[in-house]
Amino acid sequence: MSLSFWQQRRRAQAMAYDVIVVGGGIVGCSTAYWLRRQKPSLDVALVEARTLGAGASGRNAGFVLQGTAADYLSDVERYGERTARRLWHFTRANRDLMEKELQGQAFGWKSEGSLTVAGDVEEDERLQDSVGRLRAAGAPVVYLEPEQTNRRIHSTGLYGGLLVTTGAVVDPLRLVRHLAAKSSADVHTHLPVERLRWDDHGGVLLETPDQRLWSERVVLAVGPALPSLVPELPAVVRPVRAQMLATTPGANQTIPVPVYSHRGGFYIRQDEHGHVLVGGGRHQHRQAEETPVDATTPAVQATIERYLNTHFPWTQELSIQQRWSGTMGFSPDGRPVVGPVPEHPDSVFATGFTGHGMGYGFRMGRLLAQRVTGTKRPDGYELFSVSRLNENDPSSRTDPSARSSSS
Ligand SMILES: Cc1cc2nc3c(=O)[nH]c(=O)nc-3n(C[C@H](O)[C@H](O)[C@H](O)COP(=O)(O)OP(=O)(O)OC[C@H]3O[C@@H](n4cnc5c(N)ncnc54)[C@H](O)[C@@H]3O)c2cc1C
Predict the structure, then answer these.
(1) Whether residue 372 has its Cβ less than 6 Å from ligand 1
(2) pTM metric for this prediction
(3) Domain 112-166+238-329 falls under CATH 3.30.9.10
(4) What pLDDT does residue 102 have?
(5) If you write DSSP's letter for every residue of 279-308 in order, what string do you get?
(6) What are the tens digits of pLDDT across the range 272-301?
(7) Whose CA is nearest to atom 3 of ligand 1?
(8) Nearest atom of ligand 1 to the alpha carbon of 244
């Protein structure tokens, strides 16, 4: 295709900003929001390859949970009590900030608790064992006996559950769009950044098929696509697919809170219209789901339907309205990874939210905004710093999905 004079001129002239955020998911949009909030004078651009929320952030179940994707006891065993606690507090702050800062009605905010439910006796015991530790960490948590649990969510054959009274749900796509609108950033969609060209003065030119943008600092929040922009980084993220389905609306609100079950292997909620949204099953198809390809598969969808029919048999009278998938960025140790772009310490990346980005994203945006505007180690930074992956600690590099497989 030929380029017109005008197209060529646009391509040749770089638009300049103080900060450019690349990636219009929950992390990028939250960062743009907090940049505006912290330094209103900054000229900020938000650049997205597709549409806002086109990635995992607009395709997830909308659970805003506290803690990590694994259960609390596993976190304590893996990271130590202190780190597990700090992760809990970070995600709690994420939830509290969303409630305080944003207009929840704009994105379906509902906070009536969340339930982590055991799929077998052993998991039930682990959940009970974690109650004391969670309470000591300040978590508002109540253990429900199997009978109470099944009655509460109209399920069959599930075991005991932990009700976290501060758990919440959102419409994730509306949230992302709300954040972008509130940020007043210059939003460029359908603009894939193909290459970053760093200049000698510390600035960076972002090349896209249509135009060039320039900034002194960038925030890379591109999820699993990070290696394509910063190939020199060690392996900090890999693409993993998650699948979901939604039914036609049920007559009643029978699942009043979001439910995680089978060590996070399945998750289910009902929206305000009665649609049942359910996902997971990846733990039974682990190898096939290690892929960046956005497609549903009959095998995983059948696993999800089996779960629905087994534990929520009343849903059999509903039809399947929608099936979809999304690609998540998994980190080597299950925690998000944040760090300076190698050789360009004024710019920063954040990736590897491992099936739990809604639990971190808004608070993480504040951290990233602080970092890129000059705070070297914002509160919480070391919990997520990439430097931990360089340590000679084999346990820090174990894949958490061996034990837990949320989303
Ligand atoms: C089916 C499913 C269910 C899930 N359920 C939950 C849940 O209930 N709760 C929860 O906490 N988490 C859940 N997750 C995980 C959660 O969605 C992710 O952790 C989170 O969305 C990651 O956000 P992000 O901003 O890092 O990445 P993304 O949402 O992937 O955003 C990255 C963006 O960068 C853009 N991009 C990539 N490359 C470029 C480029 N070169 N130039 C410009 N833009 C680029 C992409 O198009 C994308 O929009 C789920 C995920 C899936 C798939």
Answers:
(1) no
(2) 0.94
(3) yes
(4) 98
(5) EE-GGGSTTTT-S------HHHHHHHHHHH
(6) 999 999 999 999 999 999 999 999 999 999
(7) 60
(8) 1
